[in-house]
Amino acid sequence: MVEKTFIMVKPDGVQRNLVGEIVNRFEKKGFTLVGAKLMQITDELAKEHYGEHKERPFFGELVDFITSGPVFAMVWEGENVITSAREMMGKTNPSEAALGTVRGDYGVTVGKNIIHGSDSPESAEREINLFFHSNELLSYNKQV
Ligand code: CMP
Alpha-carbon distance 129 to 35, whole Å? Predict the structure, then answer.
């Protein structure tokens, strides 16, 4: 099924110049970029985005980190893209993520794990709506 997912290069990934590498991986895989922007997340948006983690001991750290510098927010479209993107990102903890995945290749710690991706169709819809206005999402038919 063709679906959309929300993918975000976190502040560590942006500062380490990994945006191009990550976009490249998704493009080469065959997914379609339908929305993208470099943005600064506000405290309010961070707390909303990570609402499900608000009781966790690391919540404050998570909010501080995600608001510490620009992120690159994207919406990717394609067949089974939600699950595929999670496979391409690797496990949440980079030290457990397989080589060949973004986190396995470039990350070391769970807090600074470079990339975020929606974990279900419900969270994809919620996160896309949280970060993008509908007029920021484009559509086109790839010819190749
Ligand atoms: P993400 O997929 O963006 O969703 C929640 C984030 O919480 C996760 O990536 C990790 O970066 C972060 N996280 C998970 N466990 C910890 C932890 N023990 N300490 C700090 N951050 C964590």
Answer: 12
Distance of CA 111 to the CA centre of its chain: 14
67: which residues sit within 8 A by CB, 6+ positions away? 40, 41, 42, 43, 46
| Nearest-angstrom CA–CA distance, 107 and 53 | 21
Global ipTM: 0.93
Q: What is the spatial distance between Cα 23 and Cα 31, in angstroms, rounded to a whole number?
A: 10
Q: pLDDT tens across 133-144, in order?
A: 999 999 988 776
- Assessment of whether the complete model's pTM goes beyond 0.95: yes
Mutate to test the pocket of ligand 1, among 8, 41, 56, 62 (most ligand atoms within 8 A of CB): 62
CA-to-CA distance for 90 and 66, rounded, in angstroms?
A: 19
